[in-house]
Amino acid sequence: MQDRTELLTTVAVALGSAGTVAEVARSLVTTLAPAFCDGCEIVLSGGDGRLWRVTEGPGPTSERERVE
């Protein structure tokens, strides 16, 4: 139970300090990926219909373009 509480606290701090969608995504990947998976990426659909990788965590990722 303490591990869950510590993880939720870390996530809350990360989300509280983020501003843009990309910053929130980066905070979530940085906080959660090491605890739950070997690799992670967050991909959003752009206005042109293309998919853009906003952030990635440890491990392999796709060949999608990255945006900042």
Brief synopsis:
The chain is α+β, with helices and mostly antiparallel strands.
Describe the model.
The protein is of the alpha+beta class and 68 residues long. 47% of the residues lie in helices and 16% in strands. A two-stranded antiparallel ribbon has the order 1-2. Strand 1 and strand 2 (51-56) form a beta hairpin. Helix 1 packs antiparallel against helix 2. The longest helix has 16 residues, at 2-17. The mean pLDDT is 77.
Approximate strand percentage: 15-25%
Number of DSSP strands? 2
- Pick out the low-confidence regions: none
Helical content stands at 40-55%
What topology emerges from the helices and strands here?
Layout: H1 2-17, H2 21-36, E1 41-45, E2 51-56
Helix pairs in contact: 1-2
Keywords:
alpha+beta, two-stranded antiparallel sheet, 2 helices, flat, single chain, 68 residues, 2 strands
